[in-house]
Amino acid sequence: MSDSTTAEAPAEPPAPAAEPAEDKPNFMRLFGRYLTEANSVMVTIYSLLLAFLIGAILLIVSDEYTRSTFTYFFARPQDAWYASRDLIVESYTALFEGAILNFNTLESYQAGQAEFGNLLRPLSETLTYATPLIFTGLAVGLAFRAGLFNIGAQGQLIFGMMGALIVGFSLDLPIWLHLPLAVIAGGVAGGLFGAIPGVLKASTGAHEVISSIMLNNIAALFLVWALGTTFLHSTVKSDLVSKPVDDTAILPTLLSSLNPSLRVNLALVIGIAAAVFTWWLLSKSTFGFRIRAVGFNEHAAATAGMRIGSTYTTTMAAAGALAGLGGAALALGVSSGGITTNTALDYGFSGITVALLGRANPGGIVASALLFGALKAGALSAQPDVPVDISTLLQATIVLFIAAPALVKAILHLRTPRGGLVTLEAKGW
Amino acid sequence: MRLELKGLTKKFGSFTADDDIDLVVEPGQIHAVLGENGAGKSTLMNMLYGILTPTSGEILIDGEPVSFSGPGDAIAAGIGMVHQHFKLVGPFSVADNVQLGREHTRGAGVLSARAARKAVLDVSEQYGLRLDPDAVCEDLPVGVQQRVEIVKALSGPKTELLILDEPTAVLTPAEITELLQIMRNLAQAGTSILFISHKLKEVQAVADKITVIRRGKVVAELAPTASESEMASAMVGRAVSLQVDKTPAVPGEPRLEVKDLTVVSDAGVKVLDALELTVNGGEIVGLAGVEGNGQTELARAILGLLKPDSGYIAIDGRDAHGRGPARRIADGLGYIPEDRGRDGLVSEFSVAENIVLNQYKDEPYSKRGVVDSGAVHKRAVDSIAEFDIRTQSPDESASSLSGGNQQKVIIAREFSRPRRFLVAAQPTRGVDVGATEFIHSRLIAERDTGTGVLLISSELDEIYALADRIAVIYNGRIVGEVAPDTPREVIGRLMVGAAGAPATTEPLNTEPLNDEDTDGGDR
Lengths: 429, 523
Hints:
The complex is a heterodimer. By secondary structure, chain A is an all-alpha fold. Chain A folds into 2 domains: 1-87 and 402-429, no CATH class; 122-373, ABC transporter involved in vitamin B12 uptake, BtuC, CATH 1.10.3470. Helices cover 69% and strands 0% of the residues of chain A. Chain B is an alpha/beta fold. Chain B has helices spanning 41-48, 71-76, 94-98, 113-127, 142-154, 173-188, 200-206, 228-236, 295-303, 325-330, 340-344, 351-355, 373-386, 403-415, 433-448, 460-466, 488-495, and strands at 3-12, 15-25, 30-34, 56-61, 64-66, 79-82, 161-165, 192-197, 209-214, 217-222, 254-264, 270-280, 284-288, 310-315, 318-319, 333-336, 366-367, 370-371, 421-425, 452-456, 469-474, 477-482. In chain B, strand 11 (254-264) and strand 12 form a beta hairpin. Chains A and B meet through helix 14 and helix 15 of A and helix 10, helix 11 and strand 18 of B.
């Protein structure tokens, strides 16, 4: 992914349109039309490209050597040009190598010096970071469809972590029973915690944004307290770490037979299954019909006999359960050796961004979770050559553009699609 | 001001919304533009007010061609507009709303409350529009809010032409009477008025000249002496019977019994006060009354969205106590809500999804919690044919339909399942003449199958056309039940409190007209 890609893409659309086109619309012509239209797919693609373009500019500005070449730009512009080009190509290559495929490893592999498993390592890292985001993204996205803004995925994830952990170390069962129970415990704990803002909204009208934000703090601090209790605290370590979960409750890795460093585990499969289930729930089930009706127009839904309060409560519980499964994925997966206050990172909050980028659509959420996982894996592996902030910045910029399709449309002079621009809006503000 | 439109045309792509419109408004004249929903009235007004740019044609003010690039230009040229949906900032005072966009200051950006109040008082005195500049807008009755809009429009630097877009749609009959008087006064004072409406009676009562628009074209120029049926047939392009043919009712068992029903609002006002009402199968009972006298609450209580403080409701002989809306709907209660956009439709949903909105849990539309989209689609196709819903496909979103067709979606939903009793609240509000005719005949057909119908309408014409019995509601009580041949004056007196007092402009009810907080039901 270099600057050349960035520059090329916006210029791409005219090419197919310039095809010798008859009056009847042929495929290329329709395709060209599609490319120059501000529909949701193209806006997403252009948002990515624009974000990488802005990232490139900031890379240049933040790099001391490249910046210095600009001080004598008018004397030797080629210095600035080559320095910028090299910097951008190197940085984005480093991100790519950390997230998808390392070219050095590829060479070693071709030379017969590395195993196939080594090649998969960046991808495995990407998938590992993406997994919790799939769950939290679904948690936010599902609630969104009911018109609820679930900011509480972080807290729900933390409770899911604790639920899975407790079942994971305290029971003594065979793996076929222990693992599912621990995973389910995570979902139940997250679901119960997630139901709280739903119950509060249904019974008292308390706004879920306020209550779920505050519950995040409660969850985070509860975790600090809980980790200090003898029940949870590690028996061997003195710092704030929990006991490890039993071997029978650890999510099996998927590819470690190829190479022990491949961390990606069964949670990914559970995550994708959860996404498929969420899609099915929303589009095929009567519960999903009710969620969508309430989300679009609660008055009409109430008039049609749907119970609004219980819809809020059950939706929030389901959302919390999804985030809780994400917590279980951490506690029984990458952090099965013991969770700390840092294990949850900001997965819950990033879930909001993932859901927005995925337009509250399960398929889109999986795709955007993979993208964010890739950015995360790439940024961590490219340190210290590339500042880790560049990944955060790319995420933020992508979402900024996605959230403002009119901006992308104006920058690139796209045409308005039939039915207008699609913007995701939160209700209840 | 003399306003002239010459060949004004507006095209949206290949669709021509307004085609070669010619129109002249003489100074001090009330000129009515009459047309069905979607005839191009709003597009025309938006061009006049600078919101849309004409594709061709010109606008002349006192003989000079003008072109507006925005409402600011139109206001500067002396045009004021009162929109159908008010553009008021609810928590602001009347004075603040009137000065919105052209604030009175003492220089350096400091607001002058005194100047703002004075400006309001000046205009209200000049035109006889009583207003309290310090009142908070959202607390005012709808009719008074509209007066604020009128004063706001008149407060432009030199407003000489006022556009009123469907101004009576939200008003009570008493407020309408008053508005029409205000319009006459304004015209007498020299203000020209362009009055957009599809209500024939009002147009007849107030207009000096009537232009009828159909499918974007001027189809008739009528004098106010034209008869209603003349106007109606010009509007829809064919003869319309405003009279509904029906046979005498054959009342059967009671399908709705309401006894001693009392609902106290959050503000402590009895919005329903020991109300008693019975509707039998096979008859239409018209509930007449000035809006805001408890009709909304009664309908919501019958559906079960509003929990009564005391009293008894039985639907089809079954005590409704403890049964939520879903159970009552399953028991055979049909419900056409008065506010279609808010309570009737999920506008983002497809036509098909809206048609099954209160039946999606029933077979064949779903089985064991899974929606059968094939069955839903088939049902929608059938309903679209049966109820003549004009839509490109069942998958089109409900918001893409015109008001009349949206109402037909609701009618289709309620009429295509077994029902014992039907509440029809304002079933033809904002619906064009053709669709009104259709809905009326369906209501009669419904009655003839033995269903009991409670028709809640603020339009006496509609009640007279359909009802077999008329109940009049006032201050949350039924103050009289009369036969459908009772003279208008008698019902009119009952509607304002039986004592025969003339219609007042004071709100009859201290409760705000919008029923935001009266929902004590499910939430």
